[in-house]
Amino acid sequence: MPDTLLRFDTLEPLRAQVAAWRRAGERIVLVPTMGALHAGHLALVAHVRAIGQRAVVSIFVNPTQFGPTEDFSRYPRDTDTDLALLAEAGADAAWLPAVETMYPAGFSTRIEPGPAAEGLCGTFRPGHFSGVATVVTKLLNQVGPDVALFGEKDFQQLQVIRSVVRDLDIPVTIEGVPTLREADGLALSSRNRYLTPAERETAPRLHAVLSHIAERLAAGAEAGPLVGQGIAELEAAGFGPVQYLEVRDADTLAPVTRAARPARVIAAAYLGGTRLIDNVAVVPG
Ligand code: PAF
């Protein structure tokens, strides 16, 4: 395997490289990202390399998944640092399409995902999952990987992508990757760098509250009162607004009142100007 990171800004050379790897019998794994890479992304790359597969990392801050009042323009972009980190982690290729490459003049198609995109973030970010589904479909068609990895932190996104890939017969295996956390429980996220020092101290409460609810649900408790208490606790800690805190089935995302099957406690809440999301698995005992 080469020690150097190959960088692609245009599609044809990327496709030629992937085709060459495929002819050599190698497996290709795509790690789609919006850059501002953190230890979670790099652990994925290291994992792909450790199992002897080719790691292609896309970096593209996708304008179509941001709403008009969201953080598209201030989303952190530092391509040089990202590329240095990818080279160090042993990634094989970085795919860096420009916005005009991804959405050339005349681009007019959008994927509309089904029920997995309804509720939760779908309620608070209209059009978001259509933008995600469209760009991920394009990335999968561009790279043609055997496997694509997506973090479980964006749990609804993972289910939306699974449903799009299934419905459109895209020949790829989608793998969810467990959330990496700081020592105090805060889920790793590119947006954590927006937090002030005081907010950073408060932020792990989100994981703590979700974990407590997940434990009680696993022990047979009912969701409704736990969710109410959880929202109150988050607000008392300084979060607000809490956009949602819900318990959903881990496969179908249907609302759950008692966890008889694997479920997820899932939430989105603002802390100051930063929107944090997280979720914790409920494994019924
Ligand atoms: O999770 C992300 O970083 C983005 O939503 C993704 C999957 C790269 C699509 O732009």
UniProtKB/TrEMBL annotation:
The reaction(s) this protein catalyses: (R)-pantoate + beta-alanine + ATP = (R)-pantothenate + AMP + diphosphate + H(+)
Matches recorded under InterPro entries: Pantoate_ligase (IPR003721), Pantoate_ligase_C (IPR042176), Rossmann-like_a/b/a_fold (IPR014729)
Keyword annotations: ATP-binding, Cytoplasm, Ligase, Nucleotide-binding, Pantothenate biosynthesis
Chief location of this protein within or outside the cell: cytoplasm
Amino-acid positions noted as binding beta-alanine in the UniProt annotation, renumbered to this chain: 65
Residues the entry annotates as binding (R)-pantoate: 65, 157
Pfam families, sorted: Pantoate_ligase
Any single Gene Ontology cellular-component annotation: cytosol
One MF term in the entry's GO annotations: pantoate-beta-alanine ligase activity
Active site: 41 (proton donor)
EC number: 6.3.2.1
Top-level class of the enzyme under EC nomenclature: ligase
Cell compartments where the protein resides: Cytoplasm
SUPFAM superfamilies named in the record: Nucleotidylyl transferase (SSF52374)
Description of how the protein assembles with itself and partners: Homodimer.
Similarity field: Belongs to the pantothenate synthetase family.
Role according to the record: Catalyzes the condensation of pantoate with beta-alanine in an ATP-dependent reaction via a pantoyl-adenylate intermediate.
NCBIfam families: panC (TIGR00018)
Protein name from the UniProt record: Pantothenate synthetase
Taxonomic placement: Bacteria, Pseudomonadati, Pseudomonadota, Alphaproteobacteria, Hyphomicrobiales
